[in-house]
Amino acid sequence: MRRSPSASGHNGGKQVWLAWGNGVTQPPDLRVMIVEDQALLAMELELVLADCGCDVIGCAMDRASAFAIAERERPDLALIDVNLLDGMTGPQIAQRLVSEHSAAVVFLTANPEQIPDGFSGALGAVSKPFDEQTIRAVVGFARQFILHRTLGEAPRRFRLAPWLTTPPDDIAPH
User: Fold this and answer.
1) Would 23 be classed as within a structural domain?
2) How many domains does the chain have?
3) What's 64's domain CATH number?
4) What is the full per-residue pLDDT of the chain (174 aa) written as tens digits?
5) Does residue 156 lie in a domain region?
6) Is 14 contained in some domain?
7) In whole angstroms, what is the distance from residue 81 CA to residue 5 CA?
8) pTM of the prediction?
C-alpha cells in the first residue's frame, strides 16, 4: 500500500490522492482532525487515517488549538481524547464541533467513565489502548454515518453513544 508524500494529502500545494483499500487511487472523502496530547499516538493515528483514505487536516493538543483548526478547516470527523493538556476539555471540544461545525466526533480515552452521559453529541468512544484494526473499523463506521446518515454495525471495542441506540426519526443532531 502506498502512502502519499504527506499525511495531510498535500504535496507542495498539489493535491495527492491516496491508494487505499483495493489499491485503487481515490481522492480522500473525509476531512479528519485529531485532538490528542500524546504526540506519538497522534502521529500514528495520522498515518492510519491517511491509509484509510482520509485527509488529515490537523492535529491539536488542547482546546484552543482544536477550535482554531476546526474554524479554519471545517472537519467532517474529529477523533478527540477526553483528557488533554489543558484538562478534561475533550467533551467541550466535541460539543462545539458537533453544534457549530456539524462534525462527527469519536472519543479516544483511557478513562471511559469521564465521558459525559450524553456523549456531548459524539458517535461513541474507543478505549485506549487500541489497535490499527479498531481505528480502521471506527473510521468505516463514521464514514457510513457521515456520508449516508445510516448506522452500520458498531466496531469491536467501540462504545456507541446512547443517543444513537434510540434515534429519533431524523437520526442525529448533526
Assistant:
1) no
2) 1
3) 3.40.50.2300
4) 333 333 334 444 434 444 444 444 567 889 999 999 999 999 999 999 999 999 999 999 999 999 999 999 999 999 999 999 999 999 999 999 999 999 999 999 998 888 888 888 899 999 999 999 999 999 999 999 999 999 989 998 899 888 887 755 555 555
5) yes
6) no
7) 27
8) 0.81
